[in-house]
Structure formats: C-alpha cells, structure tokens
Amino acid sequence: MSAPAATDEPVHVESQSDLESFVSDHDIVLVDYYADWCGPCKMLEPTVEEIATETNALVAKVDIDELQSLAQEKGIRSVPTLQFYADGTMAEQVIGVQDKSDLMSVIDGLTD
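^ Thioredoxin, sequence as received from the core. Prediction below:
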C-alpha cells in the first residue's frame, strides 16, 4: 500500500498521535517545532511553506506551547527546531533559522 500524498501546505499537529500517524504514513516528514512568540520561527515560516509546496515531504508544524509534553518528549529545547523523518525514523535535526537550500539538501539526501 502506498503512502498518501503529502499536501502542498504545512499541516498543524494537534496531538502526539497525530504526529505519529503523519510520520508512519509518509515517506519523508519535516516537523517544524515553533512558537508564535518566536521571531526566528516567523523568519523560517515562508521557507517551510515553500518546502511543503516544492517537495514530496509532508511538512508538519508543532506549536510547542500547545503541545509542551510532545516537545519535551522529543527533546526540543529551543525553537525553531526542525526534525526530518525518513520511513518512520528520525534521520536529522537542525536548530535555528536555516537556508532553504540546506533544508532541501537534507530532504534530497533522504529520498536517495
């Protein structure tokens, strides 16, 4: 059975089980841990939205204020933090604002 296609825009994670199903149902998932009060998160948002549009990766957004226990369990200590999952397993994590080209390189590396 093939995984459902990723959407062209980021999806909002509502719960831990939401995140688990996204990760298990999609080949490549980029999880953006952010907070509304975080300036760098706002700077990164257009880049994350472009990645959702331009790649087959599912982009999932986790508000660390809404889902504090999930953020703690995943070891998120600062935002923005991006985690990349490939075939259900975390493959890469980057912290802080990143260049789009660097993020695309990570995704390209996971699809090889």
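The longest strand covers residues 28-34.
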